[in-house]
Specification:
The complex is a heterodimer of chains A (118) and B (838).
Chain A lengths: L23 E3 L2 H9 L4 E3 L3 H7 L11 E7 L5 E7 L7 E2 L5 E2 L5 E2 L11
Chain B lengths: L4 E5 L18 E4 L1 E4 L9 E18 H4 L5 E12 L5 E8 L5 E6 L4 E5 L5 E2 L10 E8 L4 E8 L2 E2 L3 E4 L5 E24 L11 E6 L1 E3 L10 E3 L13 H4 L11 E3 L6 E6 L7 E12 L5 E8 L5 E7 L7 E6 L9 H5 L2 E10 L3 E13 L13 E5 L10 E5 L8 E3 L11 E3 L5 E4 L10 E6 L5 E11 L3 E9 L4 E2 L4 E7 L6 E9 L3 E8 L5 E3 L3 E3 L4 E8 L9 E7 L2 E9 L8 E10 L4 E13 L14 E5 L11 E5 L9 E5 L9 E5 L9 E5 L19 E6 L4 E2 L7 H5 L7 E2 L8 E6 L12 E6 L8 E9 L3 E9 L5 E6 L2 H6 L6 E10 L1
Antiparallel strand pairs in B: 1-14, 2-4, 3-4, 4-14, 5-10, 5-14, 6-7, 6-14, 7-8, 8-9, 10-11, 11-12, 11-13, 15-25, 16-19, 17-18, 18-25, 19-24, 20-23, 20-25, 21-22, 21-24, 26-27, 27-45, 28-44, 29-32, 30-31, 31-44, 32-43, 33-40, 33-44, 34-44, 35-36, 35-43, 36-37, 37-38, 37-39, 40-41, 41-42, 46-47, ...
The chains are: A alpha+beta (118), B mainly beta (838).
């Protein structure tokens, strides 16, 4: 399972309320960005404070170190997402529960190649 | 049809709980979207968008992960049904672009029409929608230039193209469902999407069927590493992999195939066959997990009959919850057809890393099928024969034509043309509500089954097969006419099929009423669970219903199906049915009112019941077996020998109408006519007539019986041609070289022979006898009498002649009185007597 994810410090509730939907999930971070862009969301780099708050010592479920990105709603709410830097794994870490591991712990890792951003 | 789809799905994989994990099902899942097994157009499920109470969005997306990048066209086709109207103008399909301008196909909830919108001027489609009715939407959207366009058709009715001046862009998503907050309940089924601008638009009528693993393969190479979930090695004879890979819907993790060592090892499975030959494309689906989240790498391949492989997914499968992958299967070198689809197999394995064991949970291929083209020309049509005299002016001898409309091969064919229930093995009809009458006849026949509805007591006829069918295929055809029947509740089960035990239900079908008459079919699985098609509206007129039931391939498989057609139009396929045990054979068919618990009144009609066990389409006109026509040239100039025509009456019970007529110009030899009466069971009426210039109204001519000598009664001193004493053979033939003779004739000498008995005793008409004789030598005058006698003492008639020196033939015609004197045709004789020599 991912390490230090989701963030311990509080983060905006998912899904964004302005989408008017009770559930929103993506297969990969690129699909999320493209979908949310059509709703007026934008992508941004984390601030130093956000890096400290959300992305410090984050590792994916295969143990690779991760970096962060922010998706910003039209109302200015900033949602943290992480992607691993593993050479081939490149998974994305998200804010909703993807599933559960063999010990029934919640998983937030979207799996192989889901964190690749084009 | 040119079609290079990027997505094909009838949502048959499910899964039970929708998920965007892995991107195999969706790239984005937004809100209240599930799959439904209650409302679906074909197969076992459709995609359901359902919001009640608080308004919300309900949508799914395919992004560039599915579309690819820099795509400027979206060409799609899918079927849509509203069960609850949306609370606002809800989107159904759409496309987002990199320019953040959307192209939308949405539903105008006040007009109940489809709108297409890009820019500021939406276009309205003229088709007005009704609830609970499936409509096909075809669309083509373009954003690759400065004029963006949307073309839309609803069930083939085109909208005016919507256009807008925009900046050149590309698509980032294709979405289904409404992104704004509404309530409503919508279903989408049989979805196809292409991003190739040169592909055919509209895609048109189609279905999507799911085919699951259903058998092992001798090609499997499991080594010591391809195992099932109990760590038992896969073996195609004793532990085939398909058993773990065939769950429908996806979503279970209790059984799977795993690989616990690296190498080019794999398990191979066969996939179920399809029944349609018009294949538009296919897409493979995979559900997987792993034993833990440490990295691994393995492959899942779909392989065609020529060995070409498509990897659905190759890479890291290390997930502990269900993930999904899908991929369009590369078109086989021979093109898509039933043959190439049926040859597909699936392979799982090829792990290059097993840090954790990859688990293959479930596989499926979804196949897009186009509308069948034309009628089935493949089998059982006996012949089409046509001959035409060439030229326009002369020598046309005849024009003959034979056309087999439909020669159905069947194991049950009940047309009620006997006018009674004798075509059924037995009838249960305690109240007499079942009758075979002419008013119930359909499809141009004479009789049908009339079913009186006045109570809940069942009545029916059933047909039991002497040898139950074991092909695992049952195609059923029937005509049904509601005939103004009143049904206040429940459905009348008017037909049902069972196995030979008469316990296991294979299918049944019901006539119901909900703002109009409806038809529905049911198939039962091995757990006696019902799988029902949707209800389909029919008018208050005769319709023909066809049902195709296919048995699951093994007792461990869930790939049985039921398909429904009404008036030749495909309605729905229920697939993924575990019915191997229920449909172990087909032994009995019930027709009538097998079950009903409602109230109502009136009479409905059933007719033309045909069943085959090959699956062959039966179609609408099963009883026009052959149409034959012959006629002379229409030119009056030359050589018309006759006019001959045969045709099936469309009105009454004339099986065949045959007519012959001489030319009106020359050489009339006769006029013959054959006609079956329309009144009763007289099979054929034959009439003969000579020319109209004489007064004989009609005649039938034929050769009378000839009674020849069969034995000698008295020989005397007469001899045959070789001086023998057996005379009758020599006078029975027509050869003058054989004869009876008497040397040195003297008066009173005679011989007598017995004549054969006639087959029947004639009551009218002429009787005569013929004899031939001559004087062989000498100069005396010979007077000889030929006498017809009865028994030993009665003379009936005689003819006396003076013989000449060459053979002469004499005929004597009996008078009516002489003929009347014959009382025993079994004992007639001819006696030849020398009366005088002078």
């Amino acid at each position: 399972m991912a390490t230090n994810w989701p963030p311990i410090i509080s983060y905006p509730e998912w899904p964004p309320i302005e989408l008017g939907t009770p559930w929103l999930s993506f297969s990969d971070i690129q699909s999320g960005i493209l979908t949310l862009q059509s709703f007026g969301f934008t992508r941004d780099n984390p601030t130093a404070q956000e890096n400290q708050n959300y992305f410090s010592q984050v590792r994916c479920d295969e143990g690779h170190p991760c970096q962060g990105l922010m998706i910003v709603s039209p109302l200015g709410v900033r949602y943290p997402f992480a992607y691993c830097t593993g050479a081939t794994h490149k998974s994305a870490l998200v804010l909703w529960i993807v599933g559960y591991d063999i010990n029934n712990n919640p998983c937030y890792d979207l799996g192989w190649n889901s964190g690749a951003i084009t | 049809m040119a079609l290079t789809p990027v997505k094909i799905t009838g949502y048959e994989p499910g899964p039970a709980t929708l998920s965007a994990n892995g991107g195999g099902i969706f790239d984005t899942l937004g809100g209240n979207v599930t799959t439904s097994t209650t409302y679906k157009r074909t197969g076992s499920r459709a995609l359901r968008f359902y919001v009640s109470g608080s308004a919300a969005g309900a949508w799914v997306n395919y992004t560039t992960s599915t579309l690819g990048t820099s795509k400027t066209y979206e060409i799609g086709s899918a079927y849509v049904m509203w069960h609850t109207w949306p609370s606002g103008d809800a989107e159904i399909f759409g496309a987002s672009t990199a320019a953040a301008q959307n192209c939308s196909i949405y539903f105008d909830t006040s007009e109940k029409k489809i709108m297409s919108s890009v820019g500021s001027t939406p276009q309205t489609n003229s088709v007005v929608w009704s609830l609970d009715t499936w409509y096909r939407i075809d669309w083509k959207i373009y954003c690759g230039g400065t004029t963006w366009t949307i073309d839309v058709q609803v069930d083939g009715t085109a909208s005016t193209q919507a256009t807008s001046s925009e900046s050149t862009s590309s698509f980032t998503t294709a979405w289904l469902g409404w992104i704004n907050s509404f309530t409503g309940e919508m279903f989408i089924d049989d979805y196809i999407l292409s991003v190739t601008g040169t592909d055919t638009y509209p895609i048109g009528a189609h279905t999507v069927v799911g085919i699951s693993p259903n058998n092992g393969s001798s090609s499997s190479t499991p080594g010591t590493v391809i195992e099932d979930d109990t760590s038992t090695l896969v073996d195609d004879s004793t532990n085939p992999a398909y058993v773990e890979l065939d769950e429908v819907p996806f979503g279970t993790t209790t059984d799977y195939i795993k690989q616990d060592g690296t190498g080019t090892y794999f398990a191979e499975t066969a996939l179920a066959d399809i029944t349609n030959n018009t294949v538009l494309g296919a897409m493979g689906y995979l559900a997987y997990t792993s034993s833990n989240t440490s990295a691994n790498s393995a492959d899942t391949r779909i392989r065609d009959g020529a060995g070409q492989e498509t990897s659905i997914f190759t890479g890291d499968m290390s997930e502990t919850s269900l993930f999904y992958k899908s991929k369009i299967i590369t078109t086989p070198a021979a093109g898509w057809s039933k043959t190439t689809v049926d040859a597909l197999t699936a392979r799982v394995g090829y792990a290059t890393s097993v840090g954790t064991n990859p688990y293959w949970q479930t596989l499926m291929v979804e196949v897009a099928l186009g509308a069948a083209s034309g009628t089935d020309t493949s089998t059982s049509k006996s012949a089409y024969l046509e001959g035409v005299g060439q030229g326009t002016s002369s020598s046309k001898s005849a024009y003959t034509k034979g056309l087999a409309y439909y020669p159905p091969t069947s194991i049950i064919n009940i047309n009620h043309e006997t006018g009674d229930t004798s075509q059924y093995t037995n009838v249960v009809n305690a109240d007499g509500d079942l009758t075979i009458v002419s008013t119930a006849a359909m499809a141009g026949t004479k009789y049908g089954m009339s079913c009186l509805v006045n109570d809940t007591t069942a009545f029916y006829g059933y047909k039991t097969l002497a040898s139950p069918s074991t092909t695992g295929i049952l195609r059923f055809h029937i005509y049904i006419d509601p005939n103004d029947i009143t049904i206040s509740s429940s459905e009348i089960i008017y037909a049902a099929a069972f196995d030979s035990s008469d316990i296991n239900l294979i299918f049944n079908t019901g006539l119901g009423y909900s703002s109009g008459y409806t038809i529905r079919a049911y198939v039962q699985d091995d757990s006696s669970g019902d799988h029902d098609t949707s209800t389909y509206s029919i008018t208050n007129t005769p319709h023909y219903v066809e049902i195709l039931v296919i048995r699951a391939s093994t007792s461990l498989s869930s790939n049985g199906s039921l398909s429904l057609w009404i008036d030749g139009t495909f309605k729905e396929t229920l697939s993924g049915i575990d019915n191997y045990d229920k449909f172990n054979n087909f032994g009995r068919l019930y027709i009538g009112k097998q079950d009903w618990v409602g109230t109502g009144s009136g009479t409905y009609y059933l007719d033309e019941v045909i069943v085959n066990d090959t699956g062959q389409e039966i179609s609408s006109y099963p009883y026009q077996h052959v149409y034959l026509e012959g006629e002379t040239s229409t030119s009056a100039s030359t050589s018309k020998s006759a006019y001959i025509k045969g045709t099936i009456s469309t009105v009454t019970n004339k099986d065949v109408y045959l007519k012959g007529q001489a030319s009106i110009v020359t050489s009339k030899s006769g006029y013959t006519k054959g006609l079956s009466t329309s009144l009763s069971n007289k099979s054929v009426f034959i009439q003969g007539k000579i020319e109209t210039i004489v007064s004989k109204p009609a005649y039938l001519s034929g050769l009378g019986e000839i009674l020849v000598p069969i034995s000698d009664i008295y020989v005397g001193s007469w001899k045959n041609e070789v001086d023998g004493t057996v005379l009758y053979p020599s006078v029975a033939d027509s050869n003058d070289a054989t004869y009876a003779w008497y040397q040195a004739a003297s008066g009173g000498e005679y011989f007598e022979v017995k004549l054969a008995s006639p087959v029947g005793v004639p009551t009218t008409g002429n009787r005569h006898f013929i004899w031939r004789a001559y004087r062989k030598e000498g100069t005396e005058s010979l007077t000889v009498k030929c006498e017809l006698r009865q028994g030993s003492s009665t003379s009936i008639a005689s003819d006396t002649q003076i013989l000449t020196d060459s053979v002469a033939e004499y005929m004597y015609i009996l008078t009516s009185g002489e003929a009347a004197n014959i009382t025993d045709y079994t004992d007639l004789r001819l006696r030849i007597t020398i009366m005088a020599v002078s």
